[in-house]
Amino acid sequence: MLLAINWAEFGIKAAQLLLSLSILIVFHEFGHYITARWFKCRVEKFYLFFDPWFSLFKKKVGETEYGIGWLPLGGYVKISGMIDESMDKEAMKLPAQDWEFRSKPAWQRLIIMIGGVTVNVLLAFIIYAMILFVWGEDRIPMNSMRDGIWTQDKLMSEIGLRNGDKILQVNGQPIDYLENLNLKVLTGSGGTILVERNGKPQEVNIPVRLVGKLVESKRRRGLLAYRIPSVVGAYDPKDTAFGKQAGLQEYDKIVAVDGKPVSFYDEMPPLFQQKKNATAQMTVLRKNDTLQLTTKVDKEGRAGIPYLTHQQYADMGVIKIEHLSYGFFESFPAGVSKTFRKLGDYIDQFKLILNPDTEAYKGIGGFKSMGSIFPAVWDWESFWSITALFSIILAFMNLLPIPALDGGHVLFTLIEMITGRKPNEKFLEYAQIVGMVILFGLLIYANGNDLFGWNK
């Protein structure tokens, strides 16, 4: 069965992903380039994307050829005398020259190798700082959620959470803000959640396979949110949802569906599910009037009833929103702090992937998964937030001790600095080949997951 594709949405997401990766690649490679030039190494090429057989654009300035390749799987700088992805074996057979990477002392080669990672971390600092300076930060305190949580994904109900629970701790750690909740639950696999239910504390166990189960379910909605009252949000003027056709208006409060009382949004879907491809009767309060409205229900059991905005719920007292504003100079330490928080969160997720019992490896995705993170409309705050996160991930992944990554080169250089013996160049060539095979294998697996596997 062919899936319908919203090409406008696809184009916007693809454009954001391409621009984000281009920015990150250029800055990462610039980190290698500038440190190589600093130590007077010759840089033969500086490329955005790879250029096997041909390039889309190239121009030689001085000793360096700058260009854009056609294969958007990364980028590179070709530094003279360095065993890298270019695998220029002929050049390595010649005597080392003063301008070559291999002729430089180990400490200089180490700095060149970590130059890309360093720039990616600095870039994340700056992006987060400017986001905080321009837009500030909104947070929802957990203790402000008047009606507790909403288990949006049924798996959250299956593990024992209930709508209306008030979450106090995850694995013994208090959760201060809603923005941290879902990630802490996911990375808390095998631990416990302490909730307040009906005024009493109760523990809920988090399955070790929680992430694996979520991936297998192929659902892409949220896990936990704050519980919201059954009050109707605003319809888009072009919206043709059945709820709008039935006459629902913004701020209408639905108090019953087919005679069954409801107070919260989460209580309505199960009632509509019983009326698939039929109609349902809604009792609605509109100011001082009580109305009876009849709505159609689609084959999925939906009538199309929008939410209010976070601010509208805050105005109703359902939640509180803390808005933090930062001055220009205040934003920089805040940006550094946020970068390290995000790095810590990513390391926690990476640990899950390394633990086969969690089956989190099933969730590894490629370009499709990366693109899906971006919003369907161009929003600069979201774009820069995602780009900063990708920059942190790129820095971390490049430091992994895998040959062909910066971390592999760093590892061999550190061994050389400790032992005083430089690894054999033939060994480095073979290690580079092995590393590239590993990386291409991971690339194929991740994108295969997107197309054919658990992420489909």
TrEMBL record:
Q: Name one GO molecular function term.
A: metal ion binding
Key words, A-Z: Hydrolase, Membrane, Metal-binding, Metalloprotease, Protease, Transmembrane, Transmembrane helix, Zinc
Whether Transmembrane helix counts among this entry's keywords is yes
The protein's name is Zinc metalloprotease
Q: From the record, give the transmembrane residue ranges.
A: 12-30, 110-135, 383-406, 427-446
PANTHER family named in the record: MEMBRANE METALLOPROTEASE ARASP2, CHLOROPLASTIC-RELATED (PTHR42837:SF2), REGULATOR OF SIGMA-E PROTEASE RSEP (PTHR42837)
Major site of localization recorded for this protein: membrane
Give the GO cellular component terms, alphabetically: membrane
The entry's family comment says: Belongs to the peptidase M50B family.
Q: Name one GO biological process term.
A: proteolysis
Question: Residue limits of the Peptidase M50 domain?
Answer: 17-441
Q: Which cofactor does it need?
A: Zn(2+)
Where, per UniProt, does this protein localize?
Membrane
Keyword Mitochondrion listed? The answer is no
Membrane topology term: Multi-pass membrane protein
Cross-referenced InterPro entries: PDZ_sf, Pept_M50_Zn, Peptidase_M50
The residue stretches assigned to a coiled coil in this entry are: none
- Top EC class for this record: hydrolase
Q: Which domain of life is it from?
A: Bacteria
Organism, per UniProt? Lacibacter sediminis
Known EC number(s)? 3.4.24.-
